[in-house]
């Protein structure tokens, strides 16, 4: 039977989109090979001078996914080093994130809709949410923001992708 | 008490992001005025030649939001004419969509997690989902795709926006 829960409303969608992102990176690699440029070119692409570059978009998508799952499950958020220097490193980061997202048992999310979630910020007071507001108004839109921006950067760079690659099979 | 339901996992987040989009259009208008160009310039912007332009990104974000709510509530999806020709028209489309999203009572979503949802496609067989899969793997990622692409087009055009404008207050 299909049921909705804080787990079913988060982890499967995050894991699926992370898997989709891996297929975009494969397409990016094939495009670079076909056009004879280094995949390193992708790493510093930006949509605007004051937007974060490609590598950072993927790192933050990863942070958003692992942060969402860990916080809802009441666990410490796993800390990754942000030292990815190649497209392959970024793919590995995505795989590691997806493995973590899938590793947390659904039962750990029980009651998380009303758990208080605190998000530290670089500037200003931390943000406070109940778990459901955090999921709906922060974690999911933020994750999809960085996934979509990753996709948009690749499309802008000529990588042949379409909406079905974004959404996955 | 906070609870998660198909309604609480969809409509409030869609309505909030639609409201955020209105603030981006206000910023876009102010930017055009300050730089002395017509807001019509935004309407045809694309991130890649084979991606849909700005107007279409907003129309599809609207379609994704009203389609999600109507389908989960077991209603016909309201049909809008896609005849928006100005930035103000697009803002009106967003407001109309938000009003619809907020107009459907939460009770109408009851049981929608296991309802069969069929999405017609321009090419190929229709997509079939249960309601929960539709929400998590299609409706939300698709909506956020078009919202984020709208935002990205404005950022690419120099409109001064930041992540907090994307996420809203």
Automatic annotation (TrEMBL), chains A, B:
It comes from the Bacteria. InterPro entries: DinB/YfiT-like (IPR034660), DUF1993 (IPR018531). It holds the Pfam family DUF1993. PANTHER family: BLL2446 PROTEIN, DUF1993 DOMAIN-CONTAINING PROTEIN. This is DUF1993 family protein. It comes from Pelomonas nitida.
